[in-house]
Amino acid sequence: MLKFHQMKLEEVEQTLHTNITNGLTRKAVHKKREKFGWNELSEGERPSAILLFFNQFKDFMVLVLLAATLISGLLGEYLDAVAIMVIVLINGFLGFLQENKAEKSLQALKNLSAPQVTVLRDGEWQKINSKEVVPGDIIKFASGDRIGADMRIIAANNLEIEESALTGESIPAPKFTEPIAETNPPLGDLANMAFKGTLVTRGNGVGVVTAIGMSTVMGNIAGMIQTAESVMTPLQRRLDQLGKILISVALVLTVLVVITGIIHGHDVYTMFLAGVSLAVAAIPEGLPAIVTIALSLGVQRMIRKNAIVRKLPAVETLGCASIICSDKTGTMTQNKMTVTKIWNGGKDWDVTGTGYHLEGEFFYQDHKVDVLKEKTLQQLLIFGALCNNASVSVTGNEVELDGDPTEGALLIAALKAGYEKQTLLNEFTVEKEYPFDSERKMMSVLVKDRSGRRLIISKGAPDVLITKCQRALWGETVKPINDFIRKEVDGAVEELAVQALRTIAVGCKELHSPDIPQTAQEAESGLTFIGLFGMIDPPRPEVKAAVEECRQAGIKTIMITGDHVVTARAIAKQLGILETGKESRNVMDGQMLDDMSVQELEGTVEDVGVFARVSPEHKLKIVKALQNRGHVVAMTGDGVNDAPAIKAADIGIAMGITGTDVSKEASSLILLDDNFATIKAAIKEGRNIYENIRKFIRYLLASNVGEILVMLFAMLLYLPLPLVPIQILWVNLVTDGLPAMALGLDQPEENVMHRKPRHPKEGVFARKLGWKIVSRGFLIGIVSLIAFIIVYRRDPSDLSYAQTIAFTTLVLSQLIHVFDCRSEISVFSRNPFENKYLVWAVISSALLTVAVIYIPVLQPIFHTVPILPLDWLLVLGLSCFPTFLLAGSLFSRKNK
Ligand code: ATP
């Protein structure tokens, strides 16, 4: 039997039981799905839930504790043994819940950023998840797409595909549709096939799916390509190192507690169990899990704000961003283009109407014109509709657009004059297309009319297109381009651009030879300039405020656009990107960028607010120059050529709607709504997540310092044990559990966007965090000890009572201190009831502790005794002390 690459298209159709013009039917898809399954590569095993649960107990100190408990159980201390086991299990279960949640949300993220493909089914093109593709599906793809399955190519337009993932060859291979006779040519020679996982770098095409999932060439070598990536964020890495140091410190102090205790006459077994419990409580083993939770909760909040984080480290980097380089079209503007001006040979027309509506008329010097009488206007509108890849469907007066809005605007302008693309295509056949690319800034088609006349029609950026023109249509005659005409055209472009209009020029030439020009360069030369379209693209209303908010946060916004310098400047001014009075200094165009080295650019780059007329290559230069100046750069992009700059930026941002697969894969953040304001929201969230992580690091460590110190000082002072092991474990459970997690859900402080960006190298304990941890921790330890000493001195015979008082003071002082951790400034600067989760976490932890003291069955387990009402005053008073003593003026200077 012939192989797919050897077959004619009809044979491919028959073999795969499909129909090239209508695609598969829903029923056929269903049947094929049952037979062939999903289009996915089998993934490496994920850790099972049970494994994840048992992983919680593999920590060394937890194992020692379990062993010690077992021994105490064997020695007859059943109650203690069971209670400790239960607490360790609950702790493990909490850890398991946290990790499981983190794992699940990471998986959900992966699904969200799954690639999509455009497929023809039941006669209609539709976008589906690449996973749903079956053999026989007809798929459309264009430059920037990643091929979703193995395909036989049935239409190719300047198509080139980069197959280095499979062949190692990084130069893109041109693709065609003709059958290949050879049975087994090397993969690189299969010019009529496209393979899953490869990248379309130029042109566009259509293919029939021949294989999916593990049956594809990629599937065969999937084992080699699968890399289970689990990236740690810089903070996680730093905390990992810090964790090791903290463990050592905690262990040394614990050993000190145990040794002093033994020297001072406590029995070895009790001291050993107390020591191990203390080690378990004081070692912040929950820190990495809580950091992951805070990151993933933040990531979920970002999704709700339309930002998808693809790489977790980006969450942290977002908080350090000092520059946002953003595309203009679609990100800062609405990308809802409407043609409002048309210019030809010294004459300009106004077009009325807004957005995607058909109402609209043509005016010349305030007089309505009949388009049928204006030959050049007609020609411009028809050419604009023919050299066009978009399509529109009309219901009543509403128009739905499929394709590039710039092209859609041209179709709608033509429709307003009564020219419909589909009807025009009955008169003109398109023989070849030279697709748009943002480097050439042009697109052309070769069309043939009914009389056999063949025309190249080009449209593109006016300053580029005019250089390809030798003649111009002036009124109704064609004239050679001279200085006068050139000046007139430049003046007209400038006038449109000053009004913030996007400009598109149209040109054409007649072909007299029957040959088809193979390259765009050949086709786009010796043209006749026909005229100009000016279209509005209104700024997104929320962008101006977002730019201002970024400015207050010490983040500079730079607009980067392929559009005309004057248009870009006008829009930048509307958005407040250029400070008044500095405009001319703050705009740079692609030409100037070309003439500069990265080093030269470094000198001026910080003064530039707008880069206009740039091509994607320039973006890399801009990123590098800014980074060399010490900036943390966020850079947006959508096209295939934007990928290097997106990759090089500290935060690469891709567009969810208009972005290509390549740009999405290179990015660390995707904007689901393509909106600049979403970048600002993500940065705010990034700052908040980092602050929340700092909050619970502060809380956990201060608590641990308190726990260790109360024990250590008591031993040093020849006192009895202020806490029994099970109490230490309980303190750990109620304080490190819910309240710490609730801090991860804290709302940002009001001033989070009034501070300068964080320095990326800032240490974990920067901005006085270390001091706060030690000072508060010290006070927590001291007040618990004081409570213990007062009550113990009063009645040395009732040790359990004194221990209950110390235990309660330790728990409560930590539960009160948690509110202090919410602010970098002072506990008084925030409303304590704002974070409902925290309030409930604190209330439930406090009630559980009260239960442990008052419920008779729990008393023997926790070695507690009911506290007398008057002693509550002592406990509460002392518990408030650590938080409120230092909350006053001395340390409350604003941390800006
Ligand atoms: P951004 O602001 O996101 O960089 P842009 O649309 O301004 O996007 P490009 O898409 O690179 O940048 O377009 C550059 C220029 O090319 C535009 O100013 C316009 O004159 C021209 N152009 C844009 N789209 C088309 C198209 N489909 N066909 C022909 N010319 C186009």
UniProtKB/TrEMBL annotation:
Residues 3-77 form the Cation-transporting P-type ATPase N-terminal domain. Keywords: ATP-binding, Cell membrane, Ion transport, Magnesium, Membrane, Nucleotide-binding, Phosphoprotein, Translocase, Transmembrane, Transmembrane helix, Transport. It is found in: Cell membrane. The chain crosses the membrane at residues 245-263, 269-295, 696-718, 724-745, 773-793, 799-816, 837-857, 872-891. It is a multi-pass membrane protein. It holds the Pfam family Cation_ATPase. Its main location: membrane. InterPro entries: ATPase_P-typ_cation-transptr_C, ATPase_P-typ_cation-transptr_N, ATPase_P-typ_cyto_dom_N, ATPase_P-typ_P_site, ATPase_P-typ_TM_dom_sf, ATPase_P-typ_transduc_dom_A_sf, ATPase_P-type_domA, Cation_transp_ATPase_P-type. The keyword Magnesium applies. The keyword Protein biosynthesis does not apply. Belongs to the cation transport ATPase (P-type) (TC 3.A.3) family. Type IIA subfamily. This is Ca2+-transporting ATPase.
